[in-house]
From TrEMBL:
Recorded GO MF terms: protein-lysine N-methyltransferase activity
Cited InterPro entries: SET_dom_sf, SETD3_SETD6_MTase
UniProt organism field: Pelargonium exstipulatum
Name of the protein described by the UniProt record: SET domain-containing protein
PANTHER family per UniProt: SET DOMAIN-CONTAINING PROTEIN (PTHR13271:SF55), UNCHARACTERIZED PUTATIVE METHYLTRANSFERASE (PTHR13271)
Length: 579
């Protein structure tokens, strides 16, 4: 970390750079917060009559289009991009890697303000990473680092060297850490920006620019703090980070929507806003200048009704994300996160070893089966053991009606517990199919033959297959399989780090250590002799890992309790119906 004088000088150079490039800090300023948060945005006055706190011209944003137009990188990148060899994110990470190493980069005042290390698991020490063993994040981090290292060695390293030589620099050496840094800068700071079509495709370059492919898809979104109306129309799908099991919100990197093109990019200044569940500001795009007086700009807008207190931090929301996603992408967690979730999945490779795997695979394909599901903490509010009655009673009625409609002939009665079942029916349908016995499989085939005929004149629809599976199987087999999956998950979580109570004890010890009097700080002299504090404070990365894994254990325990209770009710009702 730079000394205070150097840090102050860097901040001054950055603020001057912002001003020279047209940014306006109207009712805020940027300053260093602390070692865990880095810099943040703070209110400088309680009088922002129009609510506009900060304005940044979009010309200052780092986007894939800027990379393609860059005098140094543009030619190489356009060739690779048009051939489909790279996607938008590769362009961004390549740009950041090169600019970090360029001696006379015009982006230096901005890049010098960015963190040099990060809190996501890619930056953990070997010992810190071991704290994640048994969690989804542990395997995902291993896969991601392996993938990034392969990309670096296979494409990035030589390309960066070539570009630096073209820039007249034959001395600078590129390392994997430079590329890892660029990757982390992108994931922690990029926004999914709704750019005006006229900004992305100026009329003069319309033919040339439209020849570039706009179909590059992403694996995850970076929707930091956009207002609700901006989010509408963007979060149009869910997808996964390629190569691992971390589930994050998905959106296209460059998806054209009428007069708007959604593009991921970095917006210097805006990207210094930290996250808070109760955001005090949102960001929006002003295409015409009608709000800010600056056409084609992004601005920070106050989201609070009353005036800001002077020197109060202005935070945005990165979205409703669980700790798994927050730690994986941004390097922090929220203790007792209300948006936490548990991912449960059935391994695709395990299907080959189950009885009648070929027939079941065909049924799963016909149903477009979901092999995994996200169990959000909020689902527990509607379960058997909810602490308080659910606020939205309408959902219960809809669920009962939906389940009734799945009955093929009305012979299978709607379960009495259906309104308390917290597990998504899409996933339960998958588990019903996998757990199906031979007689149930025969019944499903017979029911579907009634519809499509013995010659298979047509393929059954998804809803028809689901209905047949429900009629033949009910819930018992699926719930038993779900209980087994949750038991396995809990076993994996506890194998290396113990129980939920063990994690709670570690966190309570840390809270006590943090509050130790100064006399007991490691290495201080106490009572005339050199003493060493027996309780060394754990690293921030270790603390985040424990908070995350404890949350996973807690959710597994609670959802296992729900599944076991539902299973007992299902078995009881099956027994009663048979008698």
């Amino acid at each position: 970390m730079a000394n205070p004088e150097e840090a102050t000088a860097r901040l001054e150079r950055f603020l001057q750079w912002l001003q020279v490039n047209g940014a306006e800090l109207r009712a805020c300023y940027i300053k260093y917060c602390d070692s865990s948060k880095g810099c943040g945005v703070y209110s400088s006055t309680n009088d922002a009559s129009d609510g506009v706190l900060l304005v940044v011209p979009l010309n200052l944003a780092i986007t894939p289009m800027r990379v393609l137009q860059d005098p140094l990188l543009g030619s190489e990148c356009r060739a690779m991009f048009t051939e489909g060899e790279v996607d938008d994110r590769f362009l961004m990470n390549l740009f950041l890697t090169v600019e970090r190493l360029r001696k006379n980069s015009s982006w230096k005042p901005y890049l010098d303000m960015l963190p040099t290390t990060f809190g996501n698991p890619l930056w953990f020490t070997d010992d810190e990473l071991l704290e994640l063993r048994g969690t989804t994040l542990f395997r995902a981090t291993e896969l991601q680092k392996k993938s990034l290292l392969s990309l670096y060695n296979g494409k990035v390293k030589d390309l960066v060297k070539k570009l630096l030589i073209l820039d007249g620099d034959s001395e600078s050496e590129v390392s994997f850490d430079d590329f890892l840094w660029a990757n982390s800068v992108f994931w922690t700071r990029a926004l999914n920006i709704p750019l005006p079509n006229s900004f992305v495709f100026p009329q003069i370059n319309e033919v040339q620019d439209n020849s570039l492919s706009m179909e590059k898809s992403s694996e995850a979104s970076t929707d930091h703090g956009c207002s609700e109306e901006m989010i509408n129309g963007k979060d149009v799908q869910k997808s996964e980070v390629k190569g691992n099991d971390i589930e994050v919100n998905g959106a296209e990197l460059m998806s054209e929507q009428k007069d708007t093109v959604w593009v991921e990019g970095l917006v210097p200044g805006i990207d210094f806003c930290n996250h808070d569940l109760k955001a005090s500001a949102t960001w929006e795009v002003d295409g015409t200048g009608s709000v800010t007086g600056v056409p084609f700009s992004m601005y920070l807008l106050s989201a609070v009704q009353s005036s800001f207190s002077i020197e109060k931090e202005i935070c945005i929301s990165y979205g409703n994300k669980g700790n798994e996603e927050l730690l994986y992408l941004y390097g922090f967690v929220i203790d007792n996160n209300p948006d936490d979730y548990l991912m449960v999945h059935y391994p695709v490779e395990a299907i080959e070893s189950i009885p009648f795997s070929d027939s079941k695979s065909q049924l799963l394909e016909a149903q477009k089966a979901e092999m995994r599901c996200l169990l959000h903490k909020s689902l527990l509010d509607h379960g058997f053991f909810a602490a308080s009655p659910p606020k939205d009673k309408g959902k219960d009625t809809c669920k009962a009606v939906q389940t009734c409609n799945y009955s093929w002939s009305g012979q299978r009665k709607t379960p009495s517990y259906v309104n308390k079942l917290v597990f998504p029916d899409d996933f339960l349908t998958t588990l019903r199919t996998i757990a199906m016995r031979e007689d149930e499989l025969f019944k499903v085939s017979s029911l579907l033959e009634e519809l499509v005929g013995t010659e298979g004149e047509r393929q059954p629809f998804k809803a028809e297959v689901r209905a047949a599976v429900w009629e033949a199987c009910g819930d018992s087999g699926a719930l038993q399989l779900l209980v087994d999956l949750l038991h396995v998950k809990m076993t994996n979580l506890e194998e290396y780090s113990g129980t939920e109570d063990c994690d709670t004890e570690l966190l309570e010890q840390e809270a006590h250590i943090t509050g130790c009097p100064k006399d007991f700080i490691k290495g201080d002299t106490v009572n005339g002799s050199r003493e060493w504090c027996r309780c060394k404070k754990m690293s921030r990365n270790k603390w985040c890992s424990i908070v995350y894994r404890r949350g996973q254990k807690q959710l597994t325990r609670l959802f296992l309790k729900e599944a076991e209770h539902a299973l007992q009710l299902s078995l009881s009702e099956d027994s009663a119906n048979q008698s």
